[in-house]
Amino acid sequence: MSTGVILWIISLVIGLVVIGVVALLLHLVKHTAIKIDAEAEDIWTHGKLTASNTIHIPLFLNTTNAVVSDILNSAVAIVGGAKAITQHIEGCPGCPACILKPTKK
Predict the structure, then answer these.
(1) What is the pLDDT, as a whole number, of residue 22?
(2) What pTM value is reported for the model?
């Protein structure tokens, strides 16, 4: 074979190898892009769900504030009752007598 034919064969083999490597790299890029797209879709879905949940916060905030206000009022009443009991205990020499004493009507 002549030198020209050998050079053509070598260049064709090198070209085929390069084409194979490029095809493999393109396949890897495509596979990675598909994975990225799937993950981005999951992030988008969860983001929409989170946004949907946060829209309802102001609706529940009024109810929560009302319940917390009731709890605070109850706690203040309990503290007031506890202070009254403490004052009575500190000033009463015989507390059972106070309990057993008939009340005035």
Answers:
(1) 98
(2) 0.48
